[in-house]
């Protein structure tokens, strides 16, 4: 873990230098880039991109194992969160990413330290994947003082600024313009850091989504928009209220962006697409949006079994469950089963330990209700 962090920091410093050089040339190249984007867009729009990009063979065994490890951890965490909710231990509500883990895993693996993530209320996976300790996330779900937000945020508001997790937002689409603020800061300070904003298909009919995309392109911001299209909003299929088939990608052209649809259940496809987008943003190439097709194993929230969804649809997507599918692919590629078993066992042990740490965590003091209520709104934070 320490080696990975050191490597990432080294990578970041190098990337920062490259980004700084590129920014110098950016003003002049911006117009050329805009022209190129326009050209690319007209070539791509209307054409269908294959669901899974070719070239997944480029990844190293180390990256593949890291992706697998992440998917397994997220799966085991969410399964435990569900059980703890059913036992009445998770306070408030919860929204699980069971079945959707490949997106959080694939994107996080393409991010560097210092990059920032904006999640929705369905944000356990995205938060964990950025390296926020599992103990703190589990304790937060249980409303304990040892939680990442000292037990004040809960499942829907996971935040860890030190890990670049800039919050989980319950108001659909509201975080997209906020993510632009983060990207704008990186651009102004020339930090080479990239912001990633995840959102559901349901956010695409909200004004904030369109406003954010437009401004991100106009200001050429280092931001990546990731639409997790799981076909359903709360209890309504997105297709029943949307004029186009791909609610995010099919609108990309309106903002001069490329139309990108990928298989969101394939951690490698997600990782490669995210890496391309993040590298481009880091180099001053501006925003990207991609739509990752996926499905929730459960319903919208809490104990909702989602029985209103057609049986065939559920069965079809369960057959494409990212975890067994990816495990099989790795075995077919010749990766030792024992290596995968070891990852599974470690993830289970981590979840068990996090559960214990959360259950044994103290409840917050009453006095803590009066702290961290507001930020200093004075001018000090601006300087
Ligand atoms: C502005 C706003 N309108 C309505 C809601 C109620 N609401 C909560 S989740 C949700 C559905 C969101 O669906 P989607 O964006 O597809 O995300 P998913 O839950 O499928 O991950 C709705 C309508 C809300 N939180 N905010
Ligand atoms: Mg949805």
Write the layout of secondary structure elements.
Blueprint: H1 2-44, H2 61-86, H3 101-108, E1 116-120, H4 124-129, H5 134-141, E2 165-169, H6 175-189, E3 195-200, H7 207-218, E4 223-229, E5 261-263, H8 267-282, E6 288-293, H9 311-318, H10 322-332, H11 337-359
Parallel strand pairs: 1-2, 1-3, 3-4, 4-6, 5-6
Helix pairs in contact: 2-3, 2-10, 2-11, 3-8, 5-11, 6-7
How is this structure best described in words?
Helix 2 (61-86) packs parallel to helix 11 (337-359), helix 5 crosses helix 11 and helix 6 runs parallel beside helix 7 (207-218). Helix content is 46%, strand content 8%. With 383 residues, the protein is α/β, with parallel strands linked by helices. The chain is globular, with a radius of gyration of 20 Å. 44% of the residues are buried. The protein starts with a helix and ends in a 24-residue tail after the last helix. It is built from eleven helices and six strands. The protein has a six-stranded parallel β-sheet with strand order 2-1-3-4-6-5, sandwiched between helices. It has helices at 2-44, 61-86, 101-108, 124-129, 134-141, 175-189, 207-218, 267-282, 311-318, 322-332, 337-359; strands spanning 116-120, 165-169, 195-200, 223-229, 261-263, 288-293. The structure holds thiamine diphosphate and magnesium ion. Thiamine diphosphate is lined by residues 122, 170-172, 200-203, 230, 232-234, 300.
């Amino acid at each position: 873990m320490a080696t990975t962090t050191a490597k990432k920091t080294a990578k970041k410093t190098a990337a920062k230098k490259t980004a700084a050089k590129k920014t110098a040339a950016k003003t002049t190249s911006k117009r050329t880039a805009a022209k190129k984007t326009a050209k690319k867009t007209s070539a791509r729009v209307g054409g269908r991109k294959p669901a899974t990009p070719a070239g997944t063979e480029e990844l190293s065994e180390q990256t593949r194992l890291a992706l697998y490890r992440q998917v397994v951890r997220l799966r085991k965490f969410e399964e435990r969160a569900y059980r703890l909710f059913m036992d009445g231990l998770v306070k408030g509500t919860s929204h699980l990413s069971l079945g959707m883990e490949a997106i959080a895993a694939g994107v996080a693996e393409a991010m560097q330290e210092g990059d920032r993530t904006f999640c929705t209320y369905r944000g356990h996976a995205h938060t964990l994947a950025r390296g926020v300790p599992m103990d703190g996330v589990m304790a937060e779900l249980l409303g304990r003082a040892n939680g990442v937000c000292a037990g004040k945020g809960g499942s829907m508001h996971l935040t860890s600024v030190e890990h670049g997790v800039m919050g989980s937002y319950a108001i659909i689409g509201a975080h997209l313009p906020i993510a632009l603020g983060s990207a704008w800061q990186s651009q102004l300070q020339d930090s080479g850091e990239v912001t990633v904003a995840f959102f559901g298909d349901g956010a695409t009919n909200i004004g904030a989504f369109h406003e954010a995309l437009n401004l991100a392109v106009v200001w050429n911001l280092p931001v990546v928009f990731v639409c997790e299209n799981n076909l359903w909003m709360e209890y309504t299929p997105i297709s029943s209220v949307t004029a186009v088939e791909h609610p995010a990608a099919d609108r990309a052209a309106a903002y001069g962006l490329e139309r990108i649809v990928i298989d969101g259940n394939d951690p490698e496809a997600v990782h490669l697409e995210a890496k391309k987008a993040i590298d481009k943003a880091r180099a001053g190439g501006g925003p990207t949006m991609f739509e990752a097709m996926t499905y929730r194993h459960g319903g919208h929230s809490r104990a909702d079994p989602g029985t209103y969804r057609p049986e065939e649809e559920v069965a079809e997507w369960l057959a494409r469950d990212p975890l067994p599918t990816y495990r099989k692919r790795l075995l077919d590629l010749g990766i030792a089963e024992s290596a995968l078993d070891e990852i599974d066992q470690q993830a289970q042990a981590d979840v068990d330990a996090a559960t214990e740490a959360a259950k044994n965590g103290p409840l917050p003091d009453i006095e803590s209700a009066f702290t961290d209520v507001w930020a200093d709104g004075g001018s000090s934070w601006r300087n």
